Amino acid sequence: MADKEQKKRTTVSIYGQQYTVVGTEPPQHVKEVAQYVDQKMREIKKRNPYLDTTRLAVLTAVNVVDEYMKMLKEQNKVEDTNGRDRMTGDD
Amino acid sequence: MADKEQKKRTTVSIYGQQYTVVGTEPPQHVKEVAQYVDQKMREIKKRNPYLDTTRLAVLTAVNVVDEYMKMLKEQNKVEDTNGRDRMTGDD
Asked: Which residues of B touch A22 (CB under 8 A)?
């Protein structure tokens, strides 16, 4: 009962460091997320070989938030257009 | 001409460090992204006061990717449903 809400501990490796993530997410999701961050860090390091790990991690977060915000803005545009379409019917 | 494609340099401050982002994005967008990352880092630091900055930055990236992936999965679900609706018409 309420089994899905039970907190799980998932240990993942990101850029050679171990992290234990505690939460209700399925371990498979946590592993996918970790793999994505690890891959992004390695990509950015390749383009900027002199970055130290802290700056590399911050820039990885910046890149991901950039993608995320662009998607949110894109979605809002779509919703705006839907809203406008609906509104023309009310005129 | 091709003015929008011209690369811009935007300097932002994230968690007390300066970063110069070079790209075609409007400076306003870069600043929004930086502010989001800065805020997330401070939130996570509050909940985990003993994290060093590198681990804090990595966990910030993990949190953002988590939100991003959930949104992508949510969107795919919506697209699947749309697809199914369309397909029932072909039967």
From this structure: none
Amino acid at A46: K
pTM of the predicted model, to two decimals?
0.79
Per-residue pLDDT reduced to its tens digit, B45-85: 999 999 999 999 999 999 999 988 888 888 787 777 765 55
CB contact under 8 A, A64 and B64: yes
Query: Is A53 within 8 Å of A15 (Cβ atoms)?
Result: yes
The torsion defined by the Cα of A18, A22, A28 and A34, in degrees rounded to 10, comes to -40
Contact B37, B14 (CB under 8 A): yes
Q: How many CB pairs under 8 A join A and B?
A: 92
Q: What is the DSSP string of A3-36?
A: GGGS-EEEEEEETTEEEEEEESS-HHHHHHHHHH
Contacts of A31 in chain B (CB under 8 A): none
ipTM over 0.85: no
Measured N-to-C along each axis, helices A53-90 and B27-47 cross at an angle, to the nearest 10 degrees, of: 110
What three-state secondary structure class fits B26?
coil
CA distances from B68 to A37, A81, A85, B9 (A): 12, 23, 28, 26
DSSP A51: -
- The residue of chain B nearest to residue A28, with distances taken between CA atoms, is B66
